[in-house]
Amino acid sequence: MPLQAWLCDVCGELVTSHSNNGLVVWRTDRTGGGFRDHDFKIVHKTIDSDPEPQRCDPGTAQGYNSSLDLDLFLGSNGLAMLLSWLSIGPLKGGGSDPRVANMDEFVDFVRRVQTPYYEEARSRFDEETTHHWLGDANEYAPYLPETLRSIADGTLGD
Fold first, then answer.
1. Strand order through the sheet with 22-31
2. Residue 33 pLDDT exceeds 80
């Protein structure tokens, strides 16, 4: 089922939203105009009380100085938070610079946590079949949930 499990960007094993074992980490750089966030990763949260705690969080020693629980990025509340990083919106005066340093990287992360079947299809984006069937598609068609499901299932073009 989509939007319930992700591949850890460190160990490659499943991270789930149900047991709250997921963490999103990223780097935040201070700039003259505020903050710029980048290098988003979904990892296992280190829970020392677990019999075999996962140690996937790279932490501040590796420059990942920001983190939030994965479940905070999910659903409509998560989308509202993610969109606020692009614009503070009309109720807060609008016109703000995005908090993200790399728009493509951020959109990839947003799709991972908001678009059904995106995570499941990601590992097949470089496959020849995927490029064959979607090479001349418009900008959004490859990211529609039904297209992503076909990519993930290996049934694209069937």
1. 34-44, 22-31, 66-69
2. no
